[in-house]
Specification:
homodimer, alpha/beta, Aspartate Aminotransferase, domain 1, eight-stranded mixed sheet, four-stranded antiparallel sheet, 14 helices
Chain lengths: 409, 409
């Protein structure tokens, strides 16, 4: 131990050492926002946060005790990059029920779904390579792929999800590395890709030899209607499917997964080796224990009931409190809806006022990767706040919008 | 639920979609090897694996129960990219005792040290950019940075670690993004960078305006001699320091950290947001609980005692069982030593025979990022196997080497 040394050194100009790709890397607006909205008196519709009071805490404690008493030497040790084999088997079986027929050797466990997006960027995106998405699209995907200097080209979405028929036109001028689709209960838009559009998307993908990335974090959280066919079931040869426990179990454990054709799964394993060796063995085994004991299934049923109520509460409150000229989507599941204030309201500048009223959301502009859009739109999360807080928060937001309209904002 | 759809599709030629960087990505020889060496009758010196029988299992179970009873809503929820604040405070304080005076806001928690290497690659390495290391050097770093198409230039090491005085010559023809140093109980070489060389390295770095990446996974595991000054204490303005709980607590939790000057720490936070949002909240809080209760300190003392005995057993066994012309390093700590069979033995081809004798190691050639080397060398881990197994394994390896010499290998 030799104590402090006072540096006599000149300051370092770090800028000149940075890789070119850092120029396209930005902090996520949402994650920065989350810091503000953690203040206890703010009603936040900003995060994508599951209801913490519904976490299956006792069951997780049982899992921890069991694992540490019977399998500690495995649970706390290094493990394989591919992921805990029983968990991969569970996932392969449960996806087969949705028509996705891949074995456990096609599954890779990831450190949350965000890592899946990062690994996909790493193996597919050269600087300037094009990714096709809809607009708006998921912010975390934009962030992951901007770090690999992706360029984006987009088609709009409507109540039936991505307008896939517009892809063909786009493809004429924009050869793409892959198409990113979030078919169920879209983040941020809350809409679901219709069955005919799923089939049309697959036809287009086959005709143009395109890869499809299907991101499905919320698929199990359906509150209305019937499950639709996953794209990975329609086009298993060219679809990379992403799942996660963050919304159905808990996000703090960071357990996601990728299902991919063998060649690509092997590339993703290589990329993950360099990225973090493997996902927490302990967290994987906790998730596996909860899943294998049938607790996950029961828990998801409870979540569906609770979130459905919150969603309906939000829809009712929007109807009641928001001024004429506002509009919003009516999701069939998931965590979000997409609401638009009347034309002329700028949801980005209005956020400051909303925070003064102790209510938060994510401004729509953040979800547009290429062209500008969503100026009067906002993403509203309905899973985190309890129903009475949702009523109050939507009320406050309605007043904020009325103020903005009155002030000519 | 709509059941299976049989694809009518032509197979996809994935190759044409892959990013250029995938050409420099390879599976880690060690991680592939680990799969073989998990067979129960193989005595493995191949991994970098802590002794599982020494994990503080009961204390971890206490931590889990406490956290799930009192802080479950936080422990299982999303958290900030920067990492759990009390853990960052603990780390800042404990590093201050080694002369590294950075506050908690300069600490970033990572998903193991491997992620730290990946994030450093992401923000510093443009395709073709040069990284300076010693030869041999840590395989995980090579793997992480090859994925960003780094090129490597190296200087040899000796018993005092990296021959830093050779860097100046190298720099004349090789402008570098940074110098990677593993000063304490080097992986794979087991040697320690001497105090004069640390100071010389800092002089060179200041004269040439170089960034230093100091990787210190084993620093707390010293069995002989006095702690030396961390490079981050000598040159805080230009050093990025990497630590981990993988060797001192358990690797299954995947908790590492980076300490860096403010500008760079902010860049690393951005990179991590896109990479995995944040490290497992639960695992961070377990590690924090163990650290704050003083258990980590006691545990590290036990590890030092146990691993010291294993290291000495290995050194004695090498002396006893290996043929003349062999040599090895004598570490002052850590998990590895570097052993050389007599000239002419090819440690890579010999591995197959060694595995037939149910003993494993990592061939030296894997640790050379640029030029060829280490043909008769192997990395031997002494932390995972119990002393009696170390004796037996080194005996078997000695026989394998004698056979190789007799066979003219």
């Amino acid at each position: 131990m030799t104590g402090t040394e006072q540096p006599l050194a000149a300051p370092v100009n770090w800028q000149r050492f940075l890789a070119e790709r850092t120029q396209s890397m930005k902090s996520s607006a949402i994650r920065e926002l989350l810091k503000i909205t953690q203040l206890p008196d703010v009603i936040s519709f900003a995060g994508g946060i599951p209801a913490p009071e519904l976490f299956p805490v006792r069951e997780i404690e049982e899992a921890c005790s069991y694992l540490l008493r019977h399998e500690a030497k495995t649970a706390l040790q290094y493990s394989t990059t591919e992921g805990h084999p029983p968990l991969r088997e569970f996932l392969a079986e449960s996806m087969a029920r949705y028509g996705i027929h891949h074995g456990p050797d096609n599954v890779l466990i990831t450190t949350g779904s965000q890592q899946a997006l990062d690994l996909i960027g790493k193996i597919f995106i050269d600087p300037g390579a094009r990714v096709l998405t809809c607009r708006p699209t998921y912010l975390g995907a934009i962030q992951a792929w901007r770090a690999y200097q992706a360029s984006f080209a987009t088609v709009p979405l409507d109540d039936d999800g991505m307008q896939v028929e517009l892809l063909e036109d786009l493809l004429r001028t924009n050869p793409a590395r892959f198409v990113y689709v979030l078919p169920n209960f879209h983040n941020p838009a809350g809409v679901t890709l219709s069955e005919p559009r799923r089939r049309r998307l697959v036809e287009i993908a086959r005709a143009h030899d395109l890869i499809l990335v299907e991101d499905d974090p919320y698929g199990a959280l359906r509150y209305e209607g019937e499950d639709l066919t996953p794209i990975a079931a329609l086009a298993p040869e060219r679809t990379i499917y992403l799942g996660t426990f963050s919304k159905t179990l808990t996000p703090g454990l960071r357990i996601g997964w990728i299902v991919a054709p063998t060649d690509i799964r092997q590339r993703l394993v290589q990329a993950k080796q360099g990225a973090d060796l493997h996902t927490s063995t302990f967290d994987q085994m906790i998730a596996n224990d909860i899943a294998q004991r049938g607790i996950l299934k029961v828990h998801v049923r409870q979540l569906r009931q609770a979130y459905r109520e919150r969603m309906l509460t939000m829809l009712d409150s929007l109807e009641e409190f928001w001024p004429e000229g506002s509009s919003w989507t009516h999701p069939q599941g998931g965590l979000f809806l997409w609401a638009r204030a009347p034309e002329g309201v700028n949801a980005l500048t209005m956020l400051k006022v909303a925070l003064e009223h102790r209510v938060a959301y994510v401004p729509g502009v953040n979800f547009y990767p290429d062209e500008d859009g969503g100026h009067n739109a906002m993403r509203l999360n309905f899973s985190a706040a309890k129903p009475e807080m949702i009523v109050e928060g939507i009320h406050r937001l309605g007043m904020t919008i009325r103020d903005a309209l009155a002030g000519g904002a």
